[in-house]
Design goal:
Elements lengths: L8 H5 L7 H5 L7 H5 L7 H5 L7 H5 L7 H5 L7 H5 L7 H5 L7 H5 L7 H5 L7 H5 L7 H5 L7 H5 L7 H5 L7 H5 L7 H5 L7 H5 L7 H5 L7 H5 L7 H5 L7 H5 L7 H5 L7 H5 L8 H4 L7 H5 L7 H5 L7 H5 L7 H5 L7 H5 L7 H5 L8 H4 L7 H5 L7 H5 L7 H5 L7 H5 L7 H5 L7 H5 L7 H6 L8 H17 L6 H13 L1
Length: 503
């Protein structure tokens, strides 16, 4: 922090050449919040909250037929956290972190035999995005969402034949966390960060000999984003979602002629993960990161020849959001969730033929993390931050050749939020919330035919739900989450589900 060669914060904050916040906030040409909130043509919050036809929270919370939280928390028959964490029978983290046999990052990054990004982006022989998006021969989302033959969530949650959570939580045979964290034989973080023998980040970023991002983005021989987004000859999103001629998701998921997930995961003829991770013939990450032939960031950010955001956002030839959101021909969520004909999650979770997680984690033949963390040939952080040859933040922030935020926000040619929110032709939230044809939350929570949480947590007689059973649970919840959420891609939904199982 005491390095006087870098630009300090006051210089950046006091630079008067950039627009200040008051100019942006006091611009009266854009609609203010009160105009949006006081618009009486839209459904207000009180109408939704005061709707007495739906069950209120007190009814759900005061239902005495369900087990309360104190009973669950005060049950002394279940093992406490210290017993689980102090189990010294599992392998510790130091064994994994101190393994010096894995490849480093520099070998991977410095491999000059790989194809660079510009060759891939500028390859005109591959189909562009508009060709893919406008292909009308693929199935649309509406057929998938409108299939009324899939099973509802209550059937899955109330299935009493599935494995309960207590089997997983009460398994005392797993390794504890204290053994892993208290191992003093591994290298500490300061040794890794202060190693001055490797090249720093500025050398990599300031190398002007390689093709920079601006050259790739400004290549006029490739199709730009505005051409793809403004192409009026292709079908818009509502046409794709409402196309009833394509197959739906339930047909794909309920097709019993294809192998299920447990058959695929239990196939012992495929290569396992340890073989892939322990393959020492591939380049390491340090080789890739230390390649000094790449372009720096300032050249990319200060290139004024690329189109700004306002041009793309204000293009009025593309369909707006209200057209897509107000299309009443698509199915609602209650129809999808109440379909009782699809297979339930318990069948997937109760498959005991898959390998458990402890077998995978305790395999001592795999490479540990220490080779990567303890590699002393990587650069330290101080060398990277104190390199005065790279462009500082004020140069990038104060570049007046790029459009400021007020120009983008005050452009009155684009539709404002009130127009979208006050469109009375769309279905309002109260209609969805007050739909009495779907089961309410109290019915699901108070269903006494399924085991309650205390029974699950305090069951000391079962063993852990392991490896593939946990993975099956994750994939089952992944399909349910994707069908009933606003994730735009399967990748976003998959990452969300993965994070819930790894925390």
């Amino acid at each position: 922090m005491n390095d006087t060669s870098s630009v300090d914060l006051s210089t950046i904050v006091n630079d008067t050449s950039s627009p200040d916040l008051s100019t942006i906030m006091n611009d009266t040409s854009s609609p203010d919040l009160s105009t949006i909130m006081n618009d009486t043509s839209s459904v207000d919050l009180s109408t939704i909250v005061n709707d007495t036809s739906s069950p209120d929270l007190s009814t759900i919370m005061n239902d005495t037929s369900s087990t309360d939280l104190s009973t669950i928390m005060n049950d002394t028959s279940s093992p406490d956290l210290s017993t689980i964490m102090n189990d010294t029978s599992s392998p510790d983290l130091s064994t994994i972190m101190n393994d010096t046999s894995s490849p480093d990052l520099s070998t991977i990054m410095n491999d000059t035999s790989s194809v660079d990004l510009s060759t891939i982006v500028n390859d005109t022989s591959s189909p562009d995005l508009s060709t893919i998006v406008n292909d009308t021969s693929s199935p649309d989302l509406s057929t998938i969402l409108n299939d009324t033959s899939s099973a509802d969530l209550s059937t899955i949650m109330n299935d009493t034949s599935s494995v309960d959570l207590s089997t997983i939580m009460n398994d005392t045979s797993s390794p504890d966390l204290s053994t892993i964290m208290n191992d003093t034989s591994s290298a500490d973080l300061s040794t890794i960060m202060n190693d001055t023998s490797s090249p720093d980040l500025s050398t990599i970023m300031n190398d002007t000999s390689s093709a920079d991002l601006s050259t790739i983005m400004n290549d006029t021989s490739s199709t730009d984003l505005s051409t793809i987004m403004n192409d009026t000859s292709s079908p818009d999103l509502s046409t794709i979602m409402n196309d009833t001629s394509s197959p739906d998701l339930s047909t794909i998921m309920n097709d019993t002629s294809s192998p299920d997930l447990s058959t695929i995961m239990n196939d012992t003829s495929s290569v396992d993960l340890s073989t892939i991770v322990n393959d020492t013939s591939s380049p390491d990450l340090s080789t890739i990161m230390n390649d000094t032939s790449s372009a720096d960031l300032s050249t990319i950010m200060n290139d004024t020849s690329s189109p700004d955001l306002s041009t793309i956002v204000n293009d009025t030839s593309s369909p707006d959001l209200s057209t897509i959101m107000n299309d009443t021909s698509s199915p609602d969520l209650s129809t999808i969730m109440n379909d009782t004909s699809s297979p339930d999650l318990s069948t997937i979770m109760n498959d005991t033929s898959s390998p458990d997680l402890s077998t995978i984690m305790n395999d001592t033949s795999s490479v540990d993390l220490s080779t990567i963390v303890n590699d002393t040939s990587s650069p330290d952080l101080s060398t990277i931050m104190n390199d005065t040859s790279s462009a500082d933040l004020s140069t990038i922030v104060n570049d007046t050749s790029s459009p400021d935020l007020s120009t983008i926000m005050n452009d009155t040619s684009s539709p404002d939020l009130s127009t979208i929110m006050n469109d009375t032709s769309s279905v309002d939230l109260s209609t969805i919330v007050n739909d009495t044809s779907s089961p309410d939350l109290s019915t699901i929570v108070n269903d006494t035919s399924s085991p309650d949480l205390s029974t699950i947590l305090n069951d000391t007689s079962s063993g852990a739900l392991q490896g593939e059973e946990k993975e099956n649970t994750m994939f089952g919840l992944f399909y349910i989450q994707k069908a009933s959420s606003s994730f735009s891609t399967y990748e976003e939904c998959f990452i969300h589900c993965i994070s819930g199982f790894t925390e």
